[in-house]
Amino acid sequence: MNQQSIHVENLVKNFGKGDSFVDVIDGASFSIDKGELIALIAPSGAGKTTLLMMIGCVEEPTSGEMWLGDEKVYDNKWLNKDTRAIRREKIGFIFQAHYLIPFLNVIDNVTLLSQANGQTKEEAEKFAMELLKYFDITEKAYAMPSQLSGGQNQRVAIARALANKPKIILADEPTAALDTERSVSVVQMLKKIAIEQNVAVVMVTHDEAMLPLCDRILKIEDKKIISSKVMKDTTMI
Length: 237
Ligand SMILES: Nc1ncnc2c1ncn2[C@@H]1O[C@H](COP(=O)(O)OP(=O)(O)OP(=O)(O)O)[C@@H](O)[C@H]1O
Ligand SMILES: [Mg+2]
Known about the structure:
The protein is of the alpha/beta class. The protein contains six helices and ten strands, in the order E-E-E-H-E-E-H-E-H-H-H-E-H-E-E-E. It has a single domain, classed as P-loop containing nucleotide triphosphate hydrolases (Rossmann fold). It has helices spanning 48-55, 83-90, 106-116, 121-134, 150-162, 180-197, and strands at residues 4-15, 22-33, 37-41, 63-68, 71-75, 91-94, 168-172, 200-204, 216-221, 224-229. A six-stranded mixed sheet has the order 6-7-8-3-9-10, sandwiched between helices. It has a four-stranded antiparallel sheet with strand order 2-1-4-5, with helices on one face. It binds adenosine-5'-triphosphate (ATP) and magnesium ion. Adenosine-5'-triphosphate (ATP) is lined by residues 15-16, 22, 24, 42, 44-50. Adenosine-5'-triphosphate binds at residues 15-16, 22, 24, 42, 44-50.
């Protein structure tokens, strides 16, 4: 069985033309395996969010090739015009600001997408309660987001990202708004998900303290991607 979850060859991404031309990624090649927790690091403006959005089939690359699991999704153009369907089927997103919908309670936030994807309310809620249990937050199922702490909010956001059973989780600075203790617990949770559900997790982070918790570091350098092993006892940047 193919262990690769994400495979990218010679990916290029430019924005704009003429004076506003920016070349962000210029020939990135890398692979990420199922079950891996990857830290994606680079200075501000280097293209981390752009890269996540290309992997998530939100932002179209300029050129290159990309596989998600066994499916080749991009070969100098999207191979399936319905990129939303690929996203729905394969990807879970977690953002820095958790973007829970403020006027829906926790369980409705978690089930919203699954219901939009055609699951019945009962099916969606059953799985959502399992997720909330997994994240030790069932007692907040009927609370509103404003009644939760930052860490609880982020756990609900992670539960929501898992509601569609994605094979890839893309997290853009998921711990930026949390203190170190909460951050460690969120990253440990992502690692647990990666292992237990055989999911590839790519996490953008600026927080060096999170690096030892990851399996590998991908760094955007000179518009390319460099992979390095995590040093468990030294800082990397
Ligand atoms: N839609 C867009 N149009 C034009 N330029 C863009 C667009 N989106 C991003 N860029 C440019 O691409 C570069 C990379 O941006 P990106 O948001 O990916 O950086 P980042 O590494 O995520 O930074 P940060 O750490 O600040 O979040 C920046 O120079 C940015 O200005
Ligand atoms: Mg960014």
